[in-house]
Design a protein that fits this description.
about 400 residues, alpha/beta, three-stranded mixed β-sheet
């Protein structure tokens, strides 16, 4: 059975994976926002394609991925906050990570061991061609929104690989039963913010946590973990969350993103503080961008202050069905936690069940000790697979 696992290819992990719908790198952020709101996934793949001609069959390359967190971080830049609608006209390429190798094209015959190696090198998504009837696909390519010049692709994530390995966890000898502390999986390299600190100060670390596929821990004055600001949860919100980021504390932002919708008293705080910052019209403009109705009022005009007080804030998680489900069932702002004595297998199951790439490690008094990530788990499993080979 161990030999069979080593013989596995990425094609084995692609069974049943849906094809990626392409978003052109020349599309605007508004286009990306519209696609995000109708997507079952929290991320969009961004593509550049060679021009099709009679001499060239055309070739498409996935150049990156974007999610709602990218949009929010972009809107919260000082130069964009005063005119969100103008910022939304920028090309989606402005949201792409400048770090190379986050998205990697691979062939279906790539081995599982090689795929894990790419993940450990920094790849977050492996783009794999889907085997299909090429003639039938080409006939439908003109109307098929997932076809790239007659080819379809899916992508694999860290979660896909961990889930696949978990189905064969019994092949890894005693490793799954060992504690995460014994295996040296607990990392102290994580982002955190105080619950009373302005959420805007966490914007930089939010970007870092998105890049690391983790979250930002929210701590009280004694270092006790009380929750998190998760890119996963933020990806389920709409762009009006940018207004909350600019006005709320980290603790209040957690309440704002709860699945039942923001409490009315926190909504009033957002609107009042926007007015104090002479940004009373920003919320109206964000809402108009969200609804597709152009804003006709200057974003910083005092005339908009009274109308912004009556502007309802959309409930987070109302667009994507997958995000909405996750938010209602387990996400909210609650952190997924374990203890230093938890076994590797238990933590893997816990992360998979909650659809996160990490689990926080706490002491008995809930003081934050560190974090365990899929990347660290895969490193231990990779070393074991190498020894099996």
């Amino acid at each position: 059975m161990a030999v069979g696992l080593l013989d596995s290819e990425v094609a084995d992990l692609c069974l049943g994976k849906p094809p990626l719908r392409p978003l052109s790198a020349s599309a605007t952020i508004t286009d990306a926002l519209s696609a995000l709101k109708t997507s079952e996934d929290g991320f969009l793949s961004v593509w550049k394609c060679d021009q099709y001609s009679s001499e060239n069959s055309g070739e498409c390359l996935c150049v990156g991925k974007v999610c709602m967190v990218d949009v929010v971080c972009y809107l919260c830049k000082p130069e964009n906050l005063t005119s969100p609608s103008s910022a939304m006209d920028s090309p989606v390429s402005a949201l792409l990570s400048e770090v190379p190798g986050r998205v990697r094209h691979v062939e279906p015959h790539l081995s599982l061991l090689e795929a894990i190696d790419l993940i450990l090198q920094g790849a977050q998504n492996l783009v794999v061609p889907i085997k299909s009837n090429s003639r039938k696909t080409q006939q439908k390519s003109s109307i098929n929104p997932t076809s790239h010049y007659g080819r379809e692709f899916c992508w694999l994530t860290q979660e896909d690989i961990v889930r696949f390995l978990l189905s064969s966890i019994g092949l890894f000898s005693s490793i799954p039963a060992l504690s995460i502390s014994t295996l040296g999986l607990i990392s102290t390299n994580f982002s955190s913010v105080g619950s009373h600190s302005p959420a805007s100060l966490a914007m930089g670390v939010i970007s870092d946590s998105l890049a690391d596929q983790t979250a930002v821990a929210v701590l009280d004055d004694d270092g006790v973990l009380i929750g998190e600001i998760s890119p996963f949860t933020l990806a389920c919100c709409d762009e009006s969350i940018a207004a909350a980021f600019m006005t709320l504390s980290a603790g209040d932002l957690m309440a704002f993103t709860c699945c039942g919708g923001p409490p009315e008293e926190i909504v009033r705080v957002v609107k009042t503080r926007l007015k104090e910052m002479n940004l009373g019209g920003v919320l109206d403009e964000l809402i108009s961008v969200s609804s597709g109705i152009p804003s006709t009022s200057p974003s910083s005009s005092s005339d908009d202050d009274s109308s912004s007080q009556n502007t309802p804030l959309p409930s987070p998680g109302r667009y994507s069905r997958s995000c909405s489900y996750s938010a209602k069932v387990m996400r909210r702002a609650e952190a997924v936690v374990c203890h230093q004595g938890s076994s590797l297998a238990a933590v893997m199951v816990q992360a998979i069940a909650h659809r996160v790439n990490y689990v926080w490690v706490i002491d008995e008094d809930r003081s934050l000790v560190g974090i365990v990530t899929f990347s660290n788990m895969l490193r231990v499993i990779y070393e074991h697979l190498q020894s099996m080979a």
